[in-house]
Give the backbone structure.
Amino acid sequence: MQEQPDAPFSPGLTARVELTVTDADTAQAVGSGDVPVLGTPRVLALAEAATVAATATRMPPGGTTVGLRVELDHTAPTPVGRTVVAQATLTGVDGRRLRFEVAVTDGGQTVAQGRVERVLVDRQRFVERAGAAS
């Protein structure tokens, strides 16, 4: 992906978000398994939240990003009470498409990593189109 000269976003933007794991975040609670550890859907939501945060300060008026593609390896369990940190880095811009590398860590251990692709859209048009589809 190449950076667009007039794009509001450029590679290198980063953000991090934290989550202290509660019972509501477990695989048992979110329906993705039967173990009392951080569920993969919550890991994914945290990773996406970091990508949203990375673009927030440069978002054009009326704009937003929506998820397009995710590749995520969730490789280690995190018990209730631990704090995980998701870090997202914008690595590529191709027109309205934004590609991020994401990593989620628990202390010094990487518990998940992958890539998230998002697309810049006009918020109002997107919501209107979504409503027309129903």
